[in-house]
Amino acid sequence: MPIEICCFNVESAVIAFANGADRIELCRDQAAAGLTPEEGDLRKVKDANRDIPVKVMIRQHDRGFSVSNLEFAEMRRALEHFKNEALADGFVFGILGI
């Protein structure tokens, strides 16, 4: 069974790579239950190991998991940016509905 590790910074992702993770879910801000990571951190994680897929959390705020239409549009722009830059191997969403 594949092991996916949720990582909130570059250092924890590197540790996960070194210890057998099959996949990484990259977020930031553990206290907020995971927000969209900074692009620079995602680039560093991908540079550290190109063999293990990195999925990216798409969640813009820490006010719960409900989003407005405007916030959903912001999430979509973030997803499209990471996809167009070929930075993410997949996406994870933190929403309940719009």
Descriptive notes:
With 98 residues, this protein is an alpha/beta fold. The protein has a single domain (4-93), classed as Alpha-Beta Barrel (TIM Barrel). It is built from three helices and four strands, in the order βαβαβαβ. It has a four-stranded parallel beta sheet with strand order 1-2-3-4. α1 packs parallel to α2 (39-48). The N and C termini lie far apart (33 Å).
Order of helices and strands: EHEHEHE
Structural class: alpha/beta
Q: What is the CATH fold-level name?
A: TIM Barrel
CATH superfamily caption: Copper homeostasis (CutC) domain
Spans of at least 5 consecutive residues with low confidence: none
Count of alpha/pi helices: 3
CATH class value: Alpha Beta
Spatial ordering of strands, largest sheet:
1-2-3-4
Number of strands: 4
Q: Report the average pLDDT across residues.
A: 89
Query: How much beta, percentage-wise?
Result: 15-25%
Question: Features of this protein?
Answer:
98 residues; alpha/beta; TIM Barrel; four-stranded parallel beta sheet; 17% strand; globular
Per-chain topology:
Layout: E1 4-7, H1 10-18, E2 23-26, H2 39-48, E3 54-58, H3 69-84, E4 90-93
Parallel strand pairs: 1-2, 2-3, 3-4
